[in-house]
Amino acid sequence: TMRKVVNHGMDVVGGRAIQLGPRNFLALSYQAIPVAITVEGANILTRSLMIFGQGSMRCHPYLFEELQLLQSNDKPSALKQFHEILFKHLG
After folding, report:
1. What is the pLDDT of residues 8-22, one digit of tens each?
2. With the CA atoms of 29, 32, 37 and 42 taken in that order, what torsion angle do they form, in degrees rounded to the nearest 10?
3. Measured between alpha carbons, how far is residue 57 from residues 49, 66, 80 in Å?
4. Which tens digits make up the pLDDT trace of 36-60?
C-alpha cells in the first residue's frame, strides 16, 4: 500500500518528485520503500529457513544426536559416542 500511495504522490507532484532536494518531500519515502519490502521478505525467508533447518535436523538419523553430544557435560564419554556416530554419518 505504501508503494502505491507514494507512487501516486510522485505522479501528483510531477517534476518536483524527480529532482532530489529540499522541496521534494517524497524522496526519502520513495527511497525507503524497497528497504521495507526487502526487510519483510528477509524475515519471512529467515523464518522459513529456520523451520526447514529444525525439521531436517530432527529427521536426520545422526545430526540431532551429534549436536546433543557436543553439548554434553560428560566430555570423555560424549567424545567416544560422538566419534562412533560421526563415522556412521560419514559412511
Report:
1. 888 888 777 677 778
2. -160
3. 12, 10, 21
4. 666 666 777 788 888 888 888 888 8
Tell me whether residue 40 is one of the annotated catalytic residues. yes
What are the CB-based long-range contacts (under 8 Å, 24+) for 37-44? 37/3
Instruction: DSSP for 5-59, please give it.
Output: HHHHHHHHHGGGGGS-STT-TTHHHHHHHHHHHHHHHHHHHHHHHHHHHHHHHHH
Cell readout for 60 is 536426520
In the block, residue with C-alpha cell 523451520: 51
Q: How far apart are alpha carbons 87 and 82 in whole angstroms?
A: 9
CA 51, CA 13: separation in Å to the nearest integer? 45
Candidate list 40, 65, 66, 84, residue with the active-site label: 40
